[in-house]
Amino acid sequence: MVNGAVLATCKPRHRHQKFPSFLREIDKAVPEALDVHCIVDNYSAHKHPKVKAWLAARPRWRMHFIPACSSWLNQVERFFALIAGKAIRRGSFGSVRQLIKRLDQFVSHY
């Protein structure tokens, strides 16, 4: 939120098995001197014991669990609306791979 940078990864499913890999990507992208405040909804994948163990080993991480209708999550929804309007709508994609490529291009140029 500070500088508008977006880290994005397309995953086939939203499950606890994939969430730690996303957290690792964030961990690598954020300078070690900074704390990481992760704002998430109350989805069970965010509270899985494996996720909790990963976070426990990283004291710079702060998880903030908020309602799904929160204004913080509205910021994410707003970005999704930008993606829909500028990258997906009126597009023709012959495969999921093409769609992901288009999404990656949009995020890179954003």
UniProtKB/TrEMBL annotation:
Limits of the Tc1-like transposase DDE domain: 6-100
A Pfam family assignment: DDE_3
GO MF annotations, alphabetized: nucleic acid binding
Protein name: Putative transposase
Record organism: Paraburkholderia caballeronis
The organism's taxonomic lineage, starting at the top: Bacteria, Pseudomonadati, Pseudomonadota, Betaproteobacteria, Burkholderiales
